[in-house]
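Figure 2 data, in text form.
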Amino acid sequence: MIAKPLSIHGAWLLQSRVFADDRGTFSEWFKSSLLTEQTGESFVPVQANVSVSNAGVIRGIHYSLAPSGQAKLVTVLRGSIMDVAIDARVGSPTFGKYESAELRAGDGQTMFLRSDMAHAFQALEDNTVVSYLVSSEYSPTHEKEISPMCSMLNVQWSEKLLAVFSEKDQLAPNTAQQAESNLLPIFRN
């Protein structure tokens, strides 16, 4: 596994080797020791999530204000996504910036976000299956969201697809509203 730091401190694109033969493929998409060695971050997953989405579906922008935050390790099992790491951390030098990467099933790529980052993705194909490991259990009182259409963040979603949101994401406040309510994560080095 090779970790490429993204332009936002706290987000990495991981590339695992994919071994292929006449039976199919095999890859190690998570290995704790290598993740820690490559990123300097300790990651202990305590919950595994799987979503199935049709083309255009946007999930996020989500983050956690739990005391330990919620680190995420995201991979695609079927289909493809535009995966987005968003810096909504107060005090961060890259506050309000995002970086995206296309993740495709079988490409060996994974996105790792440390516990203070915000995250979203858009499915690029019907029946896209995304699996993500997280470092803290879902807590409705700590889970927060920002509108995926927030003009300050200006995430460039696919123009080829009709964007589809959950009601929760559609009604989510923008970044400025979350900042005014003191509901954004705090940057830590």
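Caption note: The chain has one domain: 2-136+144-180.
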